[in-house]
Automatic annotation (TrEMBL):
Lineage: Bacteria, Pseudomonadati, Thermodesulfobacteriota, Desulfobacteria, Desulfobacterales
Name of a matching Pfam family: ABC_tran
Entry keyword set: ATP-binding, Nucleotide-binding, Transport
Gene3D superfamilies: P-loop containing nucleotide triphosphate hydrolases
A GO CC term attached to the entry: membrane protein complex
Native species: Desulfosalsimonas propionicica
GO molecular function, one term: ATP binding
Residue span, ABC transporter domain: 4-228
Keyword ATP-binding included in the entry's annotation: yes
SMART domains attached to this UniProt entry: AAA
Name the record gives this protein: Putative ABC transport system ATP-binding protein
Length: 228
C-alpha cells in the first residue's frame, strides 16, 4: 500500500533574474513501511523533493498524495495539522529549541497536539531512553554533542507515532560511528514499529542501510532506481 504518491511534479525557483527548475516531471511512489533514500549530489533536487513530500513547499504542477491526503484539496490549516500529527521531520541542522531541555524539545510536538503533561513527559522520556539518551533528559542542546542533538531530533520526530518520517541529510554533521548508530536506531524503529522513513542523502553509509534507493540528478528521477 502506497503512503506517498507523486505524479508529474514540477518545481521552479527564482534566483535573482534566473529561473532554476529544481524538479522536472517527478513520478514517485513510496510504500508504507519503506526505508528509502533519495540519493543524489548537492543541487540535484533531493531536499526540494523531500520538502514537497512533507508539505513544506508546493510545486507549480503535479499531484501529491501522502497518507491518503491529496495536497491540492487541503487548506493551510489542514496541511499544518497533517504535518503535526502524521509526518515527523529530522533536519540536517537539528532545529532544536535552544532554551528547552532534551525532554522538553521532544515533548513540544505533543504539547502542540494537546497531550496531557504527565503523559507527554512519560512518553518523551521513554523515547529518549530508546535512542540512548537516558540521563540526558534535562540537558539543553548546547550541552549535548552533535550526535546527541540529532538523537533528540529523531526522538522528537517519532514520539507521536507518525505515519512517515522525513530525514534531510541526517548524518551530514556527524562522524561515521555516530551516524551509523543513528541509522541503526531508525532502522530498528522502522522494523519494529513499521514507521516509513525517507531520507535525502549523498552519504554512502545511508545508502547502504536503505532498502530502496531513489536516484535523483538535475531534478529528475534517474534510471536504475534500486531496492531490495
Amino acid at each position: 500500500m502506497s503512503i506517498v504518491e507523486i505524479k508529474g511534479v514540477d518545481k521552479t525557483y527564482q534566483q535573482g533574474k534566473v529561473f532554476v527548475q529544481a524538479l522536472k516531471k517527478i513520478d514517485l511512489t513510496v510504500e508504507k513501511g519503506d526505508f528509502a533514500a533519495i540519493a543524489g549530489p548537492s543541487g540535484s533536487g533531493k531536499t526540494t523533493l523531500l520538502n514537497i513530500i512533507g508539505g513544506l513547499d508546493m510545486p507549480e504542477h503535479g499531484h501529491i498524495r501522502v497518507d491518503g491526503n491529496v495536497y491540492a484539496d487541503m487548506t493551510r490549516s489542514q496541511m499544518a495539522e497533517l504535518r503535526l500529527r502524521r509526518i515527523g521531520f529530522v533536519f540536517q541542522a537539528y532545529n532544536l529549541l535552544p532554551v528547552l531541555s532534551a525532554v522538553e524539545n521532544v515533548e513540544y510536538v505533543m504539547q502542540l497536539q494537546g497531550v496531557a503533561k504527565k503523559q507527554r513527559r512519560d512518553r518523551a522520556m521513554t523515547i529518549l531512553d530508546e535512542v540512548g539518551l537516558a540521563g540526558r533528559y534535562h540537558n539543553r542542546p548546547a550541552e549535548l554533542s552533535g550526535g546527541q542533538q540529532q538523537r533528540v531530533a529523531v526522538a522528537r520526530a517519532i514520539v507521536s507515532d507518525p505515519a512517515i518520517v522525513l530525514a534531510d541529510e541526517p548524518t551530514a554533521n556527524l562522524d561515521s560511528k555516530t551516524g551509523e548508530g543513528l541509522l541503526q536506531i531508525m532502522e530498528k524503529m522502522n522494523r519494529e514499529k513499521a514507521v516509513t522513513f525517507i531520507f535525502s542523502t549523498h552519504d554512502q553509509m545511508v545508502m547502504s542501510y536503505a532498502r530502496r534507493l531513489i536516484h535523483i540528478r538535475d531534478g529528475e528521477i534517474a534510471n536504475g532506481e534500486s531496492g531490495q
